[in-house]
Amino acid sequence: MSVPSTIQQQINTLRQELNKHSYNYYVLDAPTIPDSEYDRLMRELETLEAQYPETITSDSPTQRVGGQALSQFAEFVHKQPMLSLNNAFSQEELNDFDRRIREKLNLDSIEYTAEPKIDGLAISLHYENGILVAAATRGDGTHGEDVTQNIRTIKIIPLRLQGDDYPAILEVRGEVYMPLAKFNAYNQQQKQKGERVFANPRNAAAGSLRQLDPRMTASRPLSMTCYGTGIIEGGTLPDKYSDIVACLKRWGLPTSAYFKVVQGAQGCWDYYEDLHKQRAKMPFDIDGVVYKVNSNKQRDIMGFISRAPRWALAHKMPAQEVMTELLAIDIQVGRTGALTPVARLAPVSVGGVTVTNATLHNQDEIDRKDIRVGDTVIIRRAGDVIPEIVASVLEKRPANSQAFVLPTQCPVCGSAVVRLKEEAVARCEGSLNCPAQRKQAIQHFASRKAMNIEGLGEKLIEQLVDANLIHNPADLYRLTSDQLANLERMGKKSADNVIQALTNSRQTTLARFLYALGIREVGESTARTLANYFGDLNAIQQASEIDLQKVPDVGEVVAQQIYHFFHEPHNQAIILKLQQAGVQWATINPVASNATSNNVTNTTATNVNSIFTGKSVVLTGTLTQMSREDATERLLQMGAKVSSSVSKKTDYVVAGENAGSKLEKAQTLGVTILDESQFLTHLK
């Protein structure tokens, strides 16, 4: 019958597209579509050719295995072709495969072998008298590339076989791949150096093995697993493939730890399901399972079709890489203020799960991959890992696409978005006001080392925020006992205790208050240093970045964080509300010589002259009359420098109960030691 012109055109288009993708994959090592899309196109062409056999030509992609050898490598001719395998995508197709074999062999049950289909590069190893003499890629199945020198750099591949019972000429076939852990580590190193990273382990293996300089291959963490044999001369091998695998292992060749002998179609299916569950934790990427008739005699009876053996089958697992459309890029603001771009995708099944979102990490990643809204993108999902966009398919990019740029204002609260030098993450500066950061900001504000509001724990804060009773730290001081008592697991007494704790917290220190604000990079020590240096909050708020860098231990990045925080209007408004709510502290005498120029009012400063003024003091052991934090605050108010370690420059060591190595070191160095009683006397 005649072939409709539309069908012929469809077939021609499919062949052109498959040939182009085969060239990109096998020759250039630069695939533009995931394997699942290639498989879909191939199956579509196979279906059409089955319906219209007269359209089949010798140059159709269905009639060959792969692509051509690169001209830079010497050509290698395979005496026994390296064929590919037919694919199955369902249990029904597996059952059909088993049924055909049972009918052909006239047997009730068939013994199969099952092993992972590793996602790497097929390789043929040639041994003569136990010595590795050649290695080649599969190429188009007949003509491959001679990569002997590169293969010799892979340490897991023996240059000489062990034992002495191997054939004089032995061809071993297997898969070269890059283990996942080493792949991730390699890519991380490349990112740090600002160099090219691989899209996936398969590309990494192919690109590494086909380097013209063997030293480049040697620097890549490649491995290999053997899965069969080719030409055998001057010796024999056992009939069963499982016994052959045992021989290969005995001769020092790497074989699969997941290799197994199974019985019948059900045994194959059970193996498939078990391996699918393990897939996310396996040390290498797989895209399916390979079943083979175990007996070579039975294989000979089954024979071959044009491009694959009838006695073997590749049972593909759900694709981990697929294509879909990038509909939009939204911005999520995390609990720490970090802005994360998230891709909104046209729904697509990846690894058996429908995916609609994928992380884009940060602006640098978007720029590096050149990802834009409207692009057709390749999505990858390995196991339970969050899906990510591997790359855009540039040939399908809309003509009017525009590069994506992160917003300069927080999409949640409108505060400024700042990205500091040498940081990949951009952050919202409205930490005290931003709803996305609300719970974490209030929890930190109330914590023991900050405002020390007893009874105001994480769960209670969550209830208060969820009930819309508080929106920022200043709202805490407007709470009433009745509001608290109405919350779950809160009675009148507990509510009164929290209100009393809030009242007590109003009288604090400048250092605690600064720490409670949750300024990035400002911990307890830096907060104390700032308080001691400037003496007053107003001076810190008005300080320039240059002024802030004059503070001991405050560098450029920390100064930027402090400056941006205090110049964010939302933060300024909440600090004012806290002061209006009665939060206060004693102004201390500033260390900064330019404090007056920063509008510090010193008339209310506590000018204290004591033995600690200008001295280095170390606290060790347990104090019974006050906490270590309170003792530190008192010393700082007296102009002391509180250190965490004892040295020759230490002036005093205050030793409480159970003082340890610091006390011993002080005694050795002859440092003046004060017990708690002496310390309290000097404080008074």
From TrEMBL:
Residues binding Zn(2+): 410, 413, 434
Signal peptide: none
Catalytic residue positions: 117 (n6-amp-lysine intermediate)
Domain BRCT stretches: 607-684
Cofactor(s) the protein requires to work: Mg(2+); Mn(2+)
GO terms of biological process kind: DNA repair; DNA replication
EC number: 6.5.1.2
PROSITE patterns linked to this entry: BRCT, DNA_LIGASE_N1, DNA_LIGASE_N2
Catalytic activity as recorded in UniProt: NAD(+) + (deoxyribonucleotide)n-3'-hydroxyl + 5'-phospho-(deoxyribonucleotide)m = (deoxyribonucleotide)n+m + AMP + beta-nicotinamide D-nucleotide
GO molecular function: DNA binding; DNA ligase (NAD+) activity; metal ion binding
NCBIfam families registered for this protein in UniProt: dnlj, PRK07956.1
HAMAP family registered for this protein in UniProt: DNA_ligase_A
Similarity comment text for this entry: Belongs to the NAD-dependent DNA ligase family. LigA subfamily.
UniProt-recorded name of the protein: DNA ligase
Taxonomic lineage of the native organism: Bacteria, Pseudomonadati, Pseudomonadota, Gammaproteobacteria, Thiotrichales
